[in-house]
Amino acid sequence: MSPNVTSEARQPLGRTVAQRKQAHELRKTLKPLLEKRRRARINDSLSHLKSLILPLIGKNARYSKLEKADILEMTVRFLRDLPSASSKPAESYTEGYKACLQRVTTLLPRTSLDQSACQRVTDFVSSRTLPQIQQ
């Protein structure tokens, strides 16, 4: 005697050929939409990264038509050139504070502040070597 095998038992997980075909068609339809969303997220993130990195490296708006690879290369170069972290938190804070003061002094002339305001800020920054945190 041969065992009776129903047609439902032959279909994996009870799905019919029509259901599998419909699922395949749905995946084919959704794939371009998902890819479009993924590319949009990447482009938005690169645009945001560009707006963050250009002022940090001292570039201006004339770099509006950068390729994606250029933005990533600038970012890698900037991050690679950052001083390495100190082992002690106090040293790390001190180095960060000094780097911040130096960056303010460098970027200040590029702002729209008038000359006297720039000079006052520069004088203030020059008078501060470290914050008075150890009192």
Automatic annotation (TrEMBL):
Protein source organism: Periophthalmus magnuspinnatus
Primary site of residence: nucleus
Annotated BHLH domain residues: 26-82
Gene Ontology CC terms: nucleus
Transcription regulation recorded as keyword: yes
InterPro entries registered for this protein in UniProt: bHLH_dom, HES_HEY, HLH_DNA-bd_sf
Protein known as: BHLH domain-containing protein
Alphabetically ordered keywords of this record: DNA-binding, Nucleus, Repressor, Transcription, Transcription regulation
Localization in the cell: Nucleus
Domain of life (superkingdom): Eukaryota
GO molecular function, one term: protein dimerization activity
Key word Calcium present: no
Gene3D superfamilies: Helix-loop-helix DNA-binding domain
